[in-house]
Amino acid sequence: MMTFKQLMSRLDTIPVTTSWYLADISESKGRQELYERQFPQRLKALKEHAVIESAVSSNRIEGIEVSNRRIGTIIFGKSFLHDRSEEEVRGYRDALGLIHEQCKNLPVSEETIFSLHRLCRGAIWDAGRYKEKDSDIIEKHPDGRSSIRFKTVPASEAPACMRKLLASWHDCVNEQKVHPLIALAAFNLDFLCIHPFRDGNGRVSRLIMLLQCYHHGIEVGRFISLERLIEQNKERYYGTLEISSQGWHQGIHDPWHYINFVCFVLKDAYREFEKRLGNVPQPRGEKTGIITDAITKFPGDFAVADILRQCPGVGIDMVRRVLKDLQAQGAVVCLGRGRNARWKRS
């Protein structure tokens, strides 16, 4: 929409700060697969924790609170929910589950946006439907006064604007005229400025951002809650959104403040991801599982050196011990002698 239109027409240079963010995220993305192979069981604990944090934080940003004692039941249980807030937190959990499980087959489309809105808004009457009345973003002041922070797109124009936004996204991705992360942040900014739903716009914007990250190989949101990081930087989130939305309707706004904020969140998520992997207790038998998994993926015979290349952080003595155990079980056979001996699965 307006941000895409601006970027596509005059993206001559990228701000230095943005370039630094993109380089750091690209480097972290390259290490992501290595960590996933090296710590598969540790990542399971991070996944479960991230789901809890994401569902709670994304709703809390919008002022929706639930009791800490009920969080485990709301997220992972099937019991009767007490109130509307609990329904919306569990609905957000369901939306996260849909993205985590179906991301490869889930397009960025109007239908997907409706589905995510229905899930995170529950059984409310207008879930999965665009707003029917104009709704501006209102700021409440400490003295009780209210003022319009941003005048959103009128309800009558919201459907057409959303279709233009989705078309701009796909054109941008297909033609590769803009870096995917810049396009992702631009989509997020335009979506929030259009404000297509009566309520739930912030939550849907964060869910779509997670889906778009998946589509471009940035899966850190599976292990670290992007929503929690946004909540922890809520003042900066709203501040950059306000700055970058000024002049949006006329196409003269400066989107880079908000684009840099989105990049900051992703960079911070990767930093925490790598830090927390070192703090999660290592389950018993984890290295054995890593080695065994690597062996099953070799198409033919292999050497100890081949396993070591596939299993960074695993020592040679551990590899030999696992091979000896597998040999005793009849799972592998040794094709020679000495340190360069080849092995083969039975």
Report on this structure.
The protein is mainly alpha-helical and 346 residues long. It has 2 domains: 276 residues, Orthogonal Bundle (Fic-like fold), CATH 1.10.3290; 60 residues, Orthogonal Bundle (Arc Repressor Mutant, subunit A). It contains 15 helices and 5 strands. Strands 3-5-4 form a 3-stranded antiparallel β-sheet. It has a two-stranded antiparallel ribbon with strand order 1-2. Strand 4 and strand 5 form a beta hairpin. Helix 2 runs parallel beside helix 12 and helix 3 crosses helix 5. The chain is elongated, with a radius of gyration of 24 Å.
Low-confidence stretches: none
Q: What fold name goes in the CATH topology slot of the largest domain?
A: Fic-like fold
Task: Give the helices and strands as they follow along the chain.
Answer: HHHHHHEEHHHHHHHEHHEE
CATH architecture of the largest domain, by name, is Orthogonal Bundle
Distance between the termini: 58 Å
Strand content: 5-15%
Rounded Rg: 24 Å
| Number of alpha- plus pi-helical segments | 15
Helix content: 55-70%
Mean pLDDT: 89
Global shape? elongated
Number of DSSP-assigned strands: 5
Report the CATH C-level class of the largest domain.
Mainly Alpha
Largest sheet: 3 strands, antiparallel
When the domains are counted, the total is: 2
Give the CATH superfamily of the largest domain: Fido-like domain
